[in-house]
What does this fold into?
Amino acid sequence: MLARRAALALLLAAAAPAAAQDPGDFVVRLNRLENQVRQMSGHIEQLQFENGQLKAQLRKFQEDVEFRFQERAGGPPRSAAPAAAPPAPAAQPSPPPGRPPRRGDAFDPAAAPNAPGAPMQLGTTLPSPPVSGAVAGVGTGPAMPRGAIDAGPTIGSLIEEDEDAPPVGAPLDLSAAGRVATAAPPPPPSPSIAATGTGNPRTDYDMAYAYILQRQYEQAEMGLRQFLQSHPRDRLVPDAIYWLGESYLQRNRPREAAEQFLKVSTEHARAGKAPDAMLKLGISLNALGARDQACATFAELGRKYPEASNSVRQGVERELKRARCA
It folds into this structure.
């Protein structure tokens, strides 16, 4: 009896820890097991995918190796499809007896013996007629030099003259085949600008200056150039060069204007228009974007011409503010 009670007590003591465990522990353990199973399943799927890729690469490599071996051996590859047989050429009709076979190109001299390019016997060709119309030649006048002012820290600058190319002539008339184009004689030289002058320096200058007063600057340019060509040593040359630069400046051509004003201030530095030309030179340089050179020009004008007129001095002060010179 005592032994039976002792055995029952031992069984109760062994079952007590299992009964004392909370059911929540079993749920936690179960979730952990499920997570581990999911992770293992993911690893297995990834390994299977990588294994499939390796198999595909291995298969492709084997096919490539077999293709190269067969290509070197000279036999057709196994996977290459049989090449389609080229279509048989269409049967051409046989030429009639007694006549040479027809040529395969598009031009048949026998069918068109008088066509351009057909072979002809020596001595049977007629001389080609002259080309109608004259070929347009080059321009009637020389190209105007286009200067480039290399403005430095001082007023000294270099003017580079680059003559423009002559205009392109009119196209030839090539409508008639088989004609040889003959070179047309060059056009007669255009009359000089000086040919239209009156011969009197003062009269030519006054006529050109009248266009300046009327704001007809293109006609003024022509008249001033006529005067400079006809009377290159006249005492009115500095004034003519100055007004020529003014005609350029009024037509928004500051580069050509700067060339003319620079010529007055350097070649005719003692002329009455030299201070005005130096002021307009600074204005032209500022219009070209050379602000530092323009400011240096205005500063040198005050040092070089201290006896300049009030209008020139006021113009220098105005342009210094406009150019924002320090």
